[in-house]
Write a structure and sequence with these properties.
By secondary structure, the protein is of the alpha+beta class. 33% of the residues lie in helices and 14% in strands. It has a three-stranded antiparallel beta sheet with strand order 2-3-5. A two-stranded antiparallel ribbon has the order 1-4. The chain binds iron/sulfur cluster (2 copies).
Length: 183
């Protein structure tokens, strides 16, 4: 019986406590953000973690971001350039590019927003953007393709590299044969 009345008293006390908080905040400035009705009022924190963005003009295909990712959600394919191809330099630190980045996918459905891919990038081209609204009904739409070349162009670079390496192998074999005939 004692416990019964103790529970009633505790319930009244809790209700009173809640009411006191409400009354205390009645005259104060409202801080509730009217999201999503007034999105412009929402200012993201300086280091907010949102959807990733990759500036492919500055990506050198080094794979450091993919290796740092704890959930393997970055997939990068590269092809070595052949002599005579000029891929230009990065705008960030004037680093010469030597790899064609034929594929650069990030599966944002797997991403845990840890930002570990951002810090090792030598050209600072993978960054957290300000986009945080990108829900999708289909998971495959959450795989973002950043590579700027299509399959045809990628295939051409692969062919160029294969042809170059095949030619280099032939030259090496000829030189080896010539050396052994001199002995
Ligand atoms: S934020 Fe983390 S989980 Fe997402 S891609 Fe970068 S390293 Fe991977
Ligand atoms: S670390 Fe930077 S430069 Fe290297 S592959 Fe990733 S995004 Fe490109």
């Amino acid at each position: 019986m004692g416990k019964y009345f103790a529970d009633i008293l505790r319930a009244i006390g809790t209700a009173f406590q809640g009411l006191t908080i409400v009354i205390r905040h009645l005259g104060r400035k409202k801080v509730t953000r009217q999201y999503p009705d007034k999105q412009n009022e929402y200012i993201l924190p300086e280091r907010a973690r949102n959807r990733l963005y990759v500036n492919m003009d500055d990506c050198i295909g080094c794979d450091k971001c993919a290796r740092a990712c704890p959930v393997d959600c970055i997939t990068i394919d590269t092809v070595k350039s052949v002599p005579g191809e000029d891929l230009g330099i990065t705008t960030m630190n004037a680093k010469k590019k030597s790899l064609w980045v034929t594929k650069f996918d990030i599966d944002m459905a797997k991403c845990c927003y840890c930002s570990l891919c951002v810090w090792p990038c030598p050209t600072e081209c993978i960054v957290m953007s300000e986009v945080f609204e990108f829900s999708e009904p289909k998971r495959e739409n959450l795989i973002y393709h950043f590579a700027t070349m299509d399959e045809t162009e990628a295939g051409q670079h692969i062919q160029n590299r294969e042809a170059y390496e095949a030619d280099a192998n032939i030259q090496r074999a000829k030189q080896a044969a010539a050396r052994s005939s001199e002995l």
